[in-house]
Structures are given as C-alpha cells and as structure tokens.
Protein 1
Amino acid sequence: MSAFRVAGPGAPPGAAQAVPRRHRRRPSARGPRPARSQRWYTPWPYLLAPLALLVLFTYVPVVNMFLYSLTDWDGFSPAKNFVGAGNYVDLFTRPRFLQVLTVSLFYLAGSAVQMVVALYFATVLSFGIRLRNLFKGILFFPYLINGVAIGFVFLYFFQPGGTLDTVLGTFGVEPRLWLGDPDLVNTSLAGVSVWRFMGLNLVLFIGAIQSIPPQLYEAASLDGASRWQQFRFVIAPSIKPIISLSAILAISGALSVFEIPFIMTGGSNNSETFVIQTIKLAFNFNKVGLASAAAVVLLAIVLLVTWLQRLLVPDERVEQS
C-alpha cells in the first residue's frame, strides 16, 4: 500500500512518518451548493414581524372600518344594527358632502403651487450658489414645526390688526377678515399649508436632482444649453418619477386635510374639510357607522385618483448615461 510521509511531532528535522493513504482528507466532490438548491423559506422568518405589524395595524382596521360602515353603531352601545348601504346613501344625499369636497379644491390648487415653488428652489439650489445650504435649511425648517404650533402662530398672523394687516397697511391695503370671510378663509388656510409642506417636496426634488450624472450637465453646457434648457431637457425628464410621487402625495393630502383648518377655524366659515366632517360625525354626533362610511369613501377616492394618475402618467425608466 502506497503512503506519503509527514514529519511527526517529535521527529528531528527532515524525518517523516508513513501515513496510510486511507487517512488522507479527500476534497469534496459536490462543490459549492448551487443557488437554486438554497432554502426558499430563508427570508420569511425575517419578514414575519413586519408583515404581522402591517396586517395588525393597517389591514385589520380597514376591514373593521368597512364592517362598521354597514351598521348604525354609535360608538358606545354594544348593539350594532346592520343597515347595509344605508350609510352610503345618507352620505351621498347630504348637501354638505359635495361642499366639503369643493373645499379640497383650494388645497389641491395650493399643492400645485407648492410643487412648482419647491421645484424652482430645488433647481436653483442644486447649482453652485453661495449659502445654498443655509437656504435649504430655512426652506425645510417649517416642515419640522408641529402643526398645532403652526396653527396658533398663524392665528396671530391672520387676526384683525395682526402681522399681515400691519404689513399690508404700509402699502395702503385695507384690513380684512382673513379667517372670518368665507371667500378668503380657504385661500388663507391653503397658503399656510403651502408654507408648511413645501420643504418636504424641496428635499425630494433636491435628492432627485443630485442623483443626475454630472456628465449630462457637462454635455448640455458644451452644446450651449441655458439654465432653462438644462431644466427642460435634463432635469425634468430625469426626475419625472419623483414628480409623479409628489403629485400623488399632494392629491391625497389635499383630500385629507385636517390639522391646520381644525386648529385655526374648527371648520367654521365654510372651511370644513372632509376629515373634519368625518370627525364631527363620529365624536360630536355619535354616528360612528356613518363616519366609517365617509372614511371608506375617502379611501376609495384617494385610491381612484392615484390609479388614474398612474394610468395617465405612467412611470418610465429614464436611462441616465
């Protein structure tokens, strides 16, 4: 039997011992395991916790809300009488239902202005200007402030003889009831929303613009493109997915406005939004079933508008090279 020789632990240098061939360690004939044979269930234990939280705090409440919308539950009584689609019929036959939806148009217009202004500042601050980081912080700061604090600050800003009237008075403008006039209140509240949420869109747009390869700007500059042409043919097509995302967030936010008008006016003077009406139905009039139906309708409207927006403006892959 052939053998190879290895040095023993106590042998002098150059000495060797005979080791049978059968004790040799043979290399594995299998090799590395192919990717297809790996265990398919490996990622699922890591996903159980987030999926459980998602189902528990998102889908289960939505299902319960839909079930409540089919009853006349008042929020306190253990009895929940089934009324079917009665709450939905009552909701769509209310005169104020369409009125609160028209109030959302003011916030939708404000969201459009907000996106345009945020896109303008994001484009300007993306180029090499002095103190651009300071301006980024100033424009983003309102988004960090609590909504309740913003509401109280702008109550003093819009009150008769307040800050706005004082500033406009220097230009000869007469004082107005900015929050008391039904023709001005929604415009004033929408302006507050624009001031507060513009920083969020600004950050999204700046991040998208900074991800554009600098070679595209260099090629545009060599071709003699102006700043406007660079924005039109380089920046706007490259950040189209982010603009689409901001549009979806703006539409859903305009339909679900609650914080600022509730704090500043409480829904008075024709400033009641859809969410304020839903809150009043549930907690002021103890009509939880009807309020749940209103919440389901709002959810359906947001999903429908989002689907239409994605259908009319589909996402396109932008090759940046």
Note: The longest strand covers residues 3-6.
Protein 2
Amino acid sequence: MADANTTYPTIVPLEPMDPARAAEVARLLVGAVDLHCHSGPAAMPRILGHTQAFQEAEDAGFKALLYKDHYYVGMPHCAVLKDIYPDSKVELFSGVALNNASGGINPHAVDHAIKLGGKIVWMPTFAASNHIQAYAAKSFPKTAKPMLPPIPLTVLDANGELIDEAKQICDLIAEADIILAGGHLHVSELFVLFEEAKKRGVKKMMVNHPTYIIGCSDDDIRSLVGLGAYMEHSICMFVPSRAKQHEPSDLVHLMEVAGADRTILGSDLGLTQAPKPVDGFRMIVSNLLDLQVSEEDIRKITSANAARLLDLAA
C-alpha cells in the first residue's frame, strides 16, 4: 500500500534509466494502447491536456489512446485532433461514462455515444452507489469547483435483478460490438451485469481496477474471466503517485490470477501528483522487466489485448 504520508510533486517525473533499459522500454511500448487516459479539460484538475497526451503517445509510437472523462464524451475532440493532425499514426477513441451528467444509466446517452463513434461504455463511476458508500466519510473526487452531490446509481433493482435500462444498454453495446466496462460498480453487481450482457451478445467486457473500489478477490477475478471479461489494472496504482495502492510485484500476481491473455494495463493517469500517462507506462514496463515478466506478456497487457477490444490489427 502507498504511504499516506508521502507527498508527491504535481507531476511525478520519470526517473532516469540507463540507456539500454530506456531503449528496451521504448521498443516494448511501440504499438501500446492506453484505454484509460484522464487528460483535460475536466472537472478535476489535470496535469496535461488532450493535445499533449495525444502528442506524447504519438512520439512514443503508441497505436491508440482512449480518453476517459467521468462527465462528458470525448469523441468530438478526437475528431478535431485528427483533423488538425491528419498525418498522425496514433488512433484516438473515447466513450461515455454513465454518471448523472449523462443521465445515469441512460440508453439514449449510449446510443448517442455509439453514433459518434464511441468504443466503450463505462457503467457509473463517481455516481455509483458503491463508490459513494466507499467514500461516505470523505468526498472523492475533489473537483476544481463544487458540483451538485451525486445521485447514487446501481444497475440492480430491489430484488437484485438487472434493471431494464441496463438490459437495453447491453443490447446497444452488443449490436455495436463495443466494450462494456464495469466502472465503479461493486463486484456483486458485475456478476449480474456481465452474465446478462453475455446472454445478450456482448463480446467485450472489462473490469476497471478490480482491486480498487470494486472489491474483487482472486476467485472473483477468475470467475469474471471465466465469463469472458478482461481485467484492466490502473498503472497509477502501481507507480509513484498519490493513487498508489500496490507494488509492481502485486501486479505480477494479478496477471497470474487472470492470465496475461485477459489482463490489460490502462494508465488511469492525468491526475495531479502522478506521472503523465506515457511516463506511467514507461515506469511499469521497467518494473515488470525487473520482475522477469516476459516481453511477450508485456506486449499482451500493454498492447495486443486492448487493441483486440478496439478491433485494431495487432
């Protein structure tokens, strides 16, 4: 676990690497995919904007970058950036998070996102009942300006059954063949959601940071993988940052639990007192090399698995 007394600079710098290691890391990150980039503008303070995040991913040879905001869709600024930089090689994507600002668990918001080219639907994050209960003693996130208090959201009715709106959303996701992400729903909700989604033809399911907020045990991870889900682990929780929860060795264990073929690394970076997204990838790849993780597995979790979910060629 991170030291609660540790203080970090606004942008945590990448520590110097010896030239051989830096070259090895750079080579492994060519073709990387970040499904969880929190650049700005945003309601929360961010250490870099969408343009800088895109340019740094381009410079590092990333295959794709997917912008995540908890309150708005990002497809329009993806299109604007591609218009401004038509020769760029990195693909840009986004999706919709079903918090109160999007109308909650709202099929219309999902339909709109799909029509704009959205590639992922995140179930409620900061508005999830599970998230609100977890942070009942303190407010999180801290937005730059006060916002209305969230209305708690769950995908289950009083009988523990999936609500009709969630079923309709699953149908829309299945038809578009995009990613259903669990957001900050509790693991008990995820099982109900993913089981129904699978019945309705959803092929791409992903659990966001299963060890944070979600409450997944190792057995839960194995069972969710058995349903066809991928485990997306947030790099920010394994590298020096205010969000650090684990050591890199814990990530190796989590890879073993789910299997490298079902593990994805997303940066979840852009927040203050943390590295920039590409630097976060550099840090964790170097850590994994130190821990003797194979290049094949590193490429799977930083590139191939996420590229498959975006229908990009490996």
Note: The mean pLDDT is 96.
Protein 3
Amino acid sequence: MKRIGFLSFGHYQPVPGSQARTAGDALLQTIDLTQAAEDLGIDGAYLRVHHFAPQFASPFPLLAAMAARTSRIELGTGVIDMRYENPLYMAEEAAITDLISNGRLQLGISRGSPETALRGYEAFGYLPAEGSSDADDARARTAIFRAAISGAGMAPANPQMTGRTGLLAIAPQSPGLSERIWWGAGTRKTAQWVGEQGMNLMSSTLLSEDTGVPFGDLQAEQIAIYRSAWAEAGHEGMPRVSVSRSILPIVNDLDRAYFGREAAAGSHDQVGHLDGGLARFGKSYVGEPAAIVDQLQTDAAVHEADTVLVTIPNQLGVDFNSHLLETIVQQIAPDLGWR
C-alpha cells in the first residue's frame, strides 16, 4: 500500500499570478492546505527547508501550527539542512512538535543542497572542525541529535539542584520519534550509509550522480542498495522509503492554461552539472490523468517506494492545490496502489 503526501517549497514573491506574495501568505496557506489535504485523505504534508531565500526556513513553528489544525495526517520535512542546526535545541523543538501532533512527525534531514548563500551555516555560527567537511559536520550533528531524541544523557547534572550526578537527557522526550527520522540521499553511496545508520530513506527529484539510465531506474537501484544495507546491519523493523515527483494532472481549462504547453512539449530527465559533478533531474508528469498513470506505471522507483511526495506549485494558492491533490487521489493514486 502506498502513502501519498505533498511537498511544498513555500515559495513566496510579489509577482503577477502569485497567490503567495509574502512569507505570511505562504505560511498561513500551508496550514489551510494541510487541513484540506487531510480532509481529502492525503497521508502526509511535508515542508522543504531553505535559508537566506524567500521560502520556508525554520520549520517547527509551522509544523506545530499544522499539527494543531489536524488530527491524522503525517507532518514532515524534506529536508532540514543539519549544517545550520544546534542538535540539542533542535531535539527539544522536534520533541515538542511531535508531542503536539500526537506522534505524527516524520523528520527528513540531510547535509543539505546548493543554496543562495556561500557557506551560510557559518553565518549561523557553525564551522566544521579542523580537517572536517561540511558534510562531515552535518553527520556529526545528526549523531548528537539522534542520541538526544533517544534519551541519551547530554549534560552533567548539577548535584545541588538534582541531588545526583550523571548526565541529563533533554526534556521533553517524545517516544517513537527516533524511529521517524529520514535522511535525504542524493547518491547510491549515501543511501548505503543511511541503511547502515538505520534511518528511513528520502530521495528527491534530483540525484547528484548519473549513470546514463532513466532517473526512476537509478533511484530504484539506490533504494535496493539502501534496503540491502539496512538488512545487513541487522536493524529491526521495516524501513520506509519516499520518492518525490512533480505530478500535474490536466482535467479542466484552468489546468490547461497553467500546464498545457508543458504537456504538449513533453518532459524528460535532465542531466546537468551540480556541485562539481553530473546530476540527473527527474522529469515532470504532466497531462491527462490516464496518461500520467501509464507513465508512472513504468517508474521503477515509484513502485519500490512506500511513500510518494508530490511537489506542489504552492504559489498558485490553496484552492488550486486542493484541486490538484483531489485529482491525484481520485484519478491517479488508486492505480498506483494507494487506498
């Protein structure tokens, strides 16, 4: 059985046609859309996190507000850049948000992606240790964060205040949160590491490597490597895997006005240079619902993943995106195994 969620980048800009002209617009509309998505039966609402850009930034206040307005839908990130995070403060925020949501948080984290600021994490006061890269630093922060939400002692107790010695854990704790951490992987090597670490796997519409095979096939290979590494490491339970797709069904004149030209032109994988190497970008699925179903049926990674996150054009507003999600859950998702 598949889960279907939406992923919003939270773009806002005062340009013609935008329904999200300010940060307030983007934030408040996301709360409304999450409630509408829950009413439609959508399984998850996820936020992409960026810094120094007109998009979503620190996500926990927004996630808590989304939690307060809903009762069932999963709430997550895809992904938080750990280079910018104080792992203990983040552990407190994550636990509080998870408790407010009654255990619905699905937290995607990673080393991050190319961004508008040069070494923006340094402006936040975080510099990698001597001899370490920013990727090393993100993984080290992640290890501290995961230990903290699992209840490990983090700071020595003050005997005058506590009457004991030893290490104190962060408070509050949210049971089960440690099992709902995902890592955003852009390569097969990273996917193997994620499996070894025992985190869930989150794979996007971009892989920072290319072998010449279609995007879905390369991503399916990444998923297979991840699951093999998970099993070999001896982790218990069944790991979860998500992939992201741009799905834009056309069922009326407004859809056609927005996306008809893109549908007529067709969409294909793109290969380009990113971070000094080749990267493969997945295509968009645009057109009549039946045609989209036919294309997704041949997408190997969609078949392998248990969760599909649909990237939405959030600047088109709540009503349009509710319509888009309703079309997907009624006319596309059931043929992919969603119920």
Note: The chain is about 40% helix and 20% strand.
